[in-house]
Design brief:
By secondary structure, the chain is of the alpha/beta class. It is built from 5 helices and 5 strands; from the N terminus they run ααβαββαββα. It is 61% helix and 10% strand. It has a 5-stranded parallel beta sheet with strand order 2-1-3-4-5, covered by helices on one side. α1 packs across α2 and α2 packs parallel to α5.
Length: 210
């Protein structure tokens, strides 16, 4: 059986609930709800504006970094051009194998150095018209035979990818073979060093033939 206290408590709760409902349903309740909606809307607008501002700032920072990167690239190209100027004047270089993009970069550097460059689809019939042949492939077991076959038909220096610079690859009997460290990546410093290696190799070849 329900006690009097519990009954009074239940009735009070009902009246309180009815009172809250009446307040919320009346003009005062509507005003409070509208105020809350406006406050939430204002908070959302503030957050959106802040996010848009941060996005704009990030865009400006990225654009500044991009401009700086482009400036550094132009500076590197200018430095490379000055570093290799006239080093390969009158030299005709044959490029064999390698990635098209990297071969294009090396070819451009050779032309900046005053030389000319060819990269035919197949090995030429008269290779001795070139001053040097640069292999843009690793001299592993798959390419060693090709390199040796080239040496049988070409009397000039071979420039190969390797681990040591300006050193004979096949020993003292193959003094016309030179290697540059690692794979060619198109890095300006590495490109400059490779141009210098080609210059040294072709200069020695010209001295030997004179």
């Amino acid at each position: 059986m329900t006690s009097t206290r519990m009954l009074i408590t239940s009735i009070s709760a009902v009246f309180i609930s009815l009172g809250i409902g009446i307040i919320l349903g009346g003009t005062g309740g509507q005003t409070w709800v509208q105020q809350q909606e406006q406050e939430w809307l204002h908070q959302l607008e503030t957050r959106f504006e802040q996010a848009a501002k941060e996005k704009g700032q990030l865009k400006r920072v990225l654009q500044q970094q991009e401009n700086r990167l482009q400036g550094l690239k132009k500076q590197n190209q200018s430095l490379l051009k000055e570093a290799v100027r006239e080093r390969l004047r009158g030299r005709h270089i044959l490029l064999v194998g390698g990635d098209d993009r990297l071969a294009h970069k090396l070819g451009r550097a050779i032309r900046l150095a005053g030389g000319t460059v060819s990269r035919p689809a197949s090995y030429p019939m008269l290779p001795d018209r070139y001053d040097a042949i640069v292999f843009l492939v690793d001299p592993d077991s798959n390419h060693r035979r090709m390199i040796r076959d080239v040496r049988l038909t070409f009397s000039g220096p071979l420039i190969l990818q390797g681990t040591e610079s300006s050193r004979a690859v096949f020993g003292s009997s193959e003094e016309r073979s030179y290697s540059f460290p690692g794979s060619f990546t198109g890095d300006p410093l590495q490109t400059c060093e490779l141009i210098q290696l080609i210059q040294n190799a072709t200069h020695r070849g010209n001295e030997a033939s004179s």
